[in-house]
Amino acid sequence: xxxxxxxxxxxxxxxxxMSKAAxxxxxxxxxxxxxxxxxxxxxxxxxxxxxxxxxxxxxEGVNLYEQSIDIRQLFEDLEDNFSSKNMQRTITISMVPFLxxxxxxxxxxxFQKKFPKVRFEINTLHKNVNVMRQEADIAIxxxxxxxxxxxxRKLSTIPYVMYGNEYWLNKVRNHEKGIDIIxxxxxxxxxxxxxxxxxxxxxxxxxxQTNSVSAQKKAADVGYGIALLPKIAVKNEKYILPEExxxxxxxxxxxxxxxxSIPKQxxxxxxxxxxxxxxxxx
Length: 282
Prior knowledge:
The protein is α/β, with parallel strands linked by helices and 282 residues long. It contains 11 helices and 11 strands. 43% of the residues lie in helices and 20% in strands. The longest helix is centred in the N-terminal third of the chain and has 24 residues, at 59-82.
C-alpha cells in the first residue's frame, strides 16, 4: 500500500464526489480516480460503489476510513511540529455568527498578530459541522454533541435578554397585552429562546422571523417588536431580563484524538482563555 494514496481515499470518502475531492486536493478529477483505482488494486478490495449521486463507500471502505483518520492526523501533526513552516497554516473554526461577530474575531486578533503566518477561516454556516471529517478543526456550538462524536469542553454560559425599542420595552415592563415578537424561523422552534417567546406571547404575536441574530436585532431596532437575544449581541444597549432565565451553554469540539499539532493546541488554549475572561452575565 502506498500511504499517500490514503489522502485521496480520505478526500473522496469525505467529499462524496470526485469533483469535490479533486477541488479539495488541488488536483484533477482524473488524478483522484487513478489514485483510488491504484489503492483498490494494491489491497485487492473495492472501496466505493458509484451511484447516481456520487461515490458510496463499501463496508470495507468504511472500515479503512475509520482506521485511516488517525494516521492522517499523525502525519499532519508531524508536519506541523517539525516543518520549518510550522505555524504557516489555515485553522478552520466553526461557530454561530453572533459569537464570531461580537467576540471571537476581535479577541483572536492579538493571537494573529503574534503568529502572523496563521490564517483563520471562520465558518458561520447554520449547520453543525463534523470535526472528525475535517469540516472544521475546531467547532464552537450552543448544544452539546452526542456522546462519542468528539471531545467537547464547556466554555461558558450565555444569558439571553429581551431587546427592543423603548415603546416595546415599556409594554413588557408594564405587562401589557398586544406585545409583538421577533424570533427564529420555524426550523429552529426547538431552541429555548424560541420556546420562551412562544410560551410568553403565543404564536399569533410573531411579526418577523429570521435565522440571524443580527437581523432580529435590526428588526427590534426599527420597531417590529421584542426579540430575545444573547446579551453579548446587544452589549450596553437597553434591554430587560426575561421573567424566566434563558441561557445557552457554549461548547468547544475537537476530534477524539489528542491535539498534538502545536498550532491547534495554541488556538484551543487561546479560545479557552477568551471565554474564561468574558463575564457574559454582567
